[in-house]
Every structure is written in structure tokens, then in C-alpha cells.
Recover the amino acids of this structure.
């Protein structure tokens, strides 16, 4: 028996909106730790890892570890039917072939339940080691989204370079080139407007903008994004999910031909 | 531009 009650149901809607274009089908794993997911995109270039810790739920009952195979676009369709302020409860029996999403309006005057068919998904679980990064950039998530969107009108790839000057995002395409430099800046009115660059060593890596743009679908989840870079490792683009967890996108770099 | 690497090259299967 599984029963997870999330008061901030809107968070789950935002999580699904940030996943559904990257991944078609995925197993949600429920354990005492929390509600998590690890999935790759269909071309095995990017990987997403979601964790919503059990403490973040108002009620968290998970009698035994359970893996729920879901089609993410169908799950997003169902969650779209919940109000942004609704309380969302996810329920499933141990041997269930379906999952129930219950939506309660904040003043309890409307209660809806949606039942979605589960699916068997054969997915490969990858072991992600803890890594030391050469550079970690924290910046406003909306700024990062704007940069990725702007650069993708000019080129297909972005070179992200971190030096002591700051972080540089560069692209080139048929019409020309573009470089955007963001400097370390903590003299801002609000902490979420800061750009914080921690650099052990300079690093420069090339990534497909199509994937970066897909990751920025998570922008509504968090004011800040963390971009962790190391030579010859996938970049990690992380958004916090309130105080209860995170969504991390890993993207393999491109190498010179 | 460039060769796209596969994410599974970096992480072990568990």
C-alpha cells in the first residue's frame, strides 16, 4: 500500500512539466527515503534524476518498495486537471495495475480522483558516483533559461567556459556567433538574483542546446539553478524542489570530430 | 558540430 499526500500539489504539476518532453515512460520508485525517478531520454544522451524526500510529504505511507511505471505525458495530463493550490494524494496498492491521483481543493469543497493505468517499463538504472567538480555556477534560473533560448536561435551547441572572469556561454551558427558572459555577483537585493561562481580549475565544455532548453522547463520550480562542470564528465543542471528535494539533469558533453 | 557522447559511457549500470 502506497499513499503520499502532498499539500503543495502544484509542485508535482511543475515537476511533470519539466520531465515530460525529455522522457516518455519512467518508473517512479517509492521507498522509505522518498519518491524518486531516474530516466534517460530516448537517445541516451541525457539523464534525469528526481528525488522528493518522504519528509516533504504531509503523509507518507510506503509499506514496501514499489516501482510504478508511468507514461509521463499521460501523468502530466492527469495532473493538469489539479488546481495549482490543490492537495494531491498518490495512491496505489502493492500489486496494482493502476495508480490513483486524488485532488482536494484547499477549502475541501472539491475532491476529484483520477485513475491511471500503470505500465511495465524495462529501464536501466545507472550508478551516478559523487564527483568533485572543477566549477560550480549558481545563477538565476530565469537568466539561464533566457541564455539557452537566445543562443539556440543562433546555433545548435553551447560552449560553457568557466574562468576567473566568469562563466561564458558561446555559440556559433550560419548567421554568426554569440558570447554571453555572466560575472560573479553577490551584491544584489535578493539572494535569488545572485550569480555565484566557484572555480577550482578553468573548464570548457560543449553541449547540445536542444537538451539544455529542455532542462529549463524546470525553471518554474526554483529561482536558482546550479550548473556543475568537470572536464570529460556530464554537466549537472540542478533545480531544487522547494525544501523537499531536487531534479537533476545530466547531459553528456560533445567532443570534437 | 562535434560528436555527441552517450550518457551511459559515464555511469555504470546498477
Amino acid at each position: 500500500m502506497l499513499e503520499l499526500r502532498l499539500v503543495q500539489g502544484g509542485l508535482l504539476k511543475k515537476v511533470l512539466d519539466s520531465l515530460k518532453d525529455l522522457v516518455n515512460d519512467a518508473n517512479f520508485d517509492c521507498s522509505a527515503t522518498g519518491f524518486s525517478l531516474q530516466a534517460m531520454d530516448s537517445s541516451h544522451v541525457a539523464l534525469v534524476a528526481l528525488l522528493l524526500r518522504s519528509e516533504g510529504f504531509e503523509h507518507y505511507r510506503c509499506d514496501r518498495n514499489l516501482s510504478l511505471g508511468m507514461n509521463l505525458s499521460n501523468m502530466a495530463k492527469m495532473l493538469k486537471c489539479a488546481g495549482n493550490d490543490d492537495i494531491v494524494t498518490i495512491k496505489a496498492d502493492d500489486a496494482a495495475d493502476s495508480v490513483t491521483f486524488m485532488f482536494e481543493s484547499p477549502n475541501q469543497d472539491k475532491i476529484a480522483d483520477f485513475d491511471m493505468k500503470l505500465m511495465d517499463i524495462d529501464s536501466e538504472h545507472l550508478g551516478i558516483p559523487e564527483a568533485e567538480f572543477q566549477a560550480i555556477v549558481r545563477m538565476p534560473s530565469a537568466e539561464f533559461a533566457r541564455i539557452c533560448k537566445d543562443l539556440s536561435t543562433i546555433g545548435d551547441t553551447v560552449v560553457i567556459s568557466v574562468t576567473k572572469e566568469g562563466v561564458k556561454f558561446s555559440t556559433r551558427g550560419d548567421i554568426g556567433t554569440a558570447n554571453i558572459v555572466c560575472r560573479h555577483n553577490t551584491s544584489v537585493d535578493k539572494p535569488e538574483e545572485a550569480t555565484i561562481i566557484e572555480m577550482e580549475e578553468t573548464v570548457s565544455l560543449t553541449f547540445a542546446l536542444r537538451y539544455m532548453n529542455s532542462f529549463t522547463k524546470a525553471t518554474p520550480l526554483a529561482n536558482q539553478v546550479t550548473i556543475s562542470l568537470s572536464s570529460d564528465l556530464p554537466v549537472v543542471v540542478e533545480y531544487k524542489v522547494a525544501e523537499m528535494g531536487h531534479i537533476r539533469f545530466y547531459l553528456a558533453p560533445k567532443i570534437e570530430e | 558540430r562535434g560528436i555527441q557522447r552517450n550518457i551511459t559511457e559515464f555511469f555504470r549500470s546498477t
Remarks:
- Chain A has four helices and 20 strands.
